[in-house]
Amino acid sequence: MPIPLIKKHVVIAFVLLFALVRAFAQNIENHTILAASGTKKLDMLSDWYYQNIRQLDGTSAFMAFNALQQDAEKAHDKICLAAVAFYRGQYVAIKLNNEALGIDYMQQGIKIAEQNRQELQAAEFWHHLGYYYFIKKQYALALSYMLKANYVFQHVGYGQIKDQGYQLYRLAFVYYHLRNYHEALKHLQTALKYPIYRPVVEIYVLNTTGQCYRELFQPDSARHYFMLANAKAVFTHDTAWMGITAGNIGNLHLNAHDYAGALPFLNDYYKYSLVSKDQACISEALMGLADVDVFYGRYNEALQHLQQADAAYHAKPGDIQVEDYVRQGYLYNTFSRAWEGKGNAGQSLYYRKLADEVRDSIDRRARLSNDVAIQQLLEAEQHANEIKLLEKEKHNALLKQYFLIAASVLVAIIFWLAYNRQLIKRKKDKALLEKKEAILQSEKAKIEADLQHATAMLNNYVENLQQKTALLDKVQTEIQLLQHQTIHQDEELVFLQKLNDSTILTEEQWQEFRELFEKVHAGFFIKLKTAYPQLTPAETRLCALTKLQLGTKEMASMLGVNADTIKKTRQRLRKKIGISEETGLEEVMDQL
Fold first, then answer.
1. Which of 511, 546, 516 is nearest to 528 (CA)?
2. What CATH number does the domain containing 554 carry?
């Protein structure tokens, strides 16, 4: 067999072996993910995509997506199915640059997570989709999705979120581009409260914090955070960020006209930018060095740096942003100052005009950019508020649903317990009821007996009084017949007086009479006192005797007065209680 053919077979065998090994490893990893649960499962799915799948070519990536999808469908694992759909969408949108199809896949993943009530998974997807929109410069839409995700992260607790520092940094970075530096700082400061395990993310957070303070005209705070970011970059040997952070510090010195302090940082900026081959950073570093050269009168060196910066600036690919015009204006202005230092007024004036034109363009674009940024920020925050309101309504609806279910179960349990208790106690309750009824009947009979006894005694009082009154009338008649006789007259008068005295109620007898009266006519004295509080004790007694329908003579006998006194007292009583001539005193007393 020829050697080239042998080599070909070896290569094919090696490729097949590698494919088998990778498929076997992928199968083991898929089953490990499917067996996991909770936040650990979400973290494993995130690592599966970002550490493994994202770096693969299209064919290998889709084989991996399809393999996990098939395993998840067999296991009915909706969490994995949601992740496959969403990360497939990210791959299609970013790696294959198919925005429409990619967003469609990502929305499918979000929908599956939401339907599966995986709030945290849906929030992670919202965050990633929002940052994708940010990359596409759709800032309002980006901020709305990321704020919606952050609302869930706050509710769950940042401590439960994987790589929370990076999540907060990306939200802050969107606010920074929308020029809302205070809101950006709030999220950056929150990010610094939690451990950040990736050094580059810590550099992002520290550097952006410094940029926010710089834009808010707080150079001391800005320098502090730039220095921290630079120290972290040096510690991790990140040359790109060593240059960027050094450049930020150098520019702070330039803004303060501290050219001697700016120079070492600008040299580092230029040196490390050459290593990272970032044309924008190279251009900016050269402009800063040229600015220092002009200050020290090194005009030739300044012009050389500026020409190199101009070449690097125009080598920068992509769209020209407002900040690029700022750099261009800075370039032309420094050119003008350098030529002026060399005594070439024509070249100085030429670059001065270019700088003025760029400045006018910057003003127009900055105003437009500010207007757009403000509008996008307002739209995003309005949308975020609507999302929060919907989430709150959804949460309240769920609470209401849970409450109704719990209340229904509780009512059923209470009803069951009450029913069983009723069955158990029914005989006892029946016996107790019968006992109570017997007691009530006994008490009722006793009350009726007491009432009958009191009524009988009161009737005896009245009957006895009537008999004595009749006897007194009879004796008085006989006395009148014997007035002309002297025999036994004294004895008769004494008898009459005794009889008369026996009809008068003493105080003790009156109290006894009152008690009997109150038992028969319960509440009479209270009602009388309430209706006519101005009555005297004698008038009160007269009202009670009237209630018993006693005659004038009977009342006079009981009260120890003559009939005329009773009549006068009745007339005075009628006036006092306001009774007309047509109304009888007896009728009023009967109503009490």
1. 546
2. 1.10.10.10
Residue 54 CB-density burial (10 A; 0-12 exposed, 13-18 middle, 19+ buried): middle
Last residue of a domain, one of 117, 132, 152: 117
Last residue of a domain, one of 117, 152, 170: 117
Both tokens of residue 16?
């097949």
Q: Which residues contact 498 (CB under 8 A, 6 or more apart)?
A: none
Q: Give CA–CA dist 385/319, Å, rounded.
A: 33
Calpha distance 533→409 (Å, rounded):
61
- Distance of CA 483 to CAs 448, 476, 499, Å? 52, 10, 18
How many folded domains does the chain comprise?
A: 2
Helix axes 537-547, 563-577, angle to 10 degrees: 100
| Residue 77 near residue 86, CB atoms below 8 Å | no
Of 177, 173, 198, 168, nearest in space to 50 by CA: 198
Angstrom distance (rounded) from CA 180 to CA 310: 31
- In sequence order, what are the residues at sequence separation of 6 or more whose Cβ sits closer than 8 angstroms to the Cβ of residue 424? none
Listed in sequence order, the residues at least 6 apart from 52 whose beta carbon sits closer than 8 Å to its beta carbon are 64
Contacts of 260 (CB under 8 A, 6+ apart): none
Q: What DSSP line would sit under 171-212, residue for residue? A: HHHHHHHTT-HHHHHHHHHHHTTS---SHHHHHHHHHHHHHH
> What pTM was estimated for this model as a whole?
0.60
What is the domain range of residue 556?
Answer: 504-591
The residues, any chain, with a CB within 8 Å of residue 80's CB and separated by 6 or more, are 33, 34, 45, 68, 69, 71, 72
Within-domain flag for 585:
yes
**Alpha-carbon span 330 to 310, nearest angstrom:** 11
pLDDT band at 320 (very low <50, low <70, confident <90, very high): very low
- Over the stretch 215-268, which tens digit does the pLDDT of each residue have? 999 999 999 999 999 999 999 999 999 999 999 999 999 999 999 999 999 999
Reply yes or no on whether the pLDDT at 422 is more than 80: no
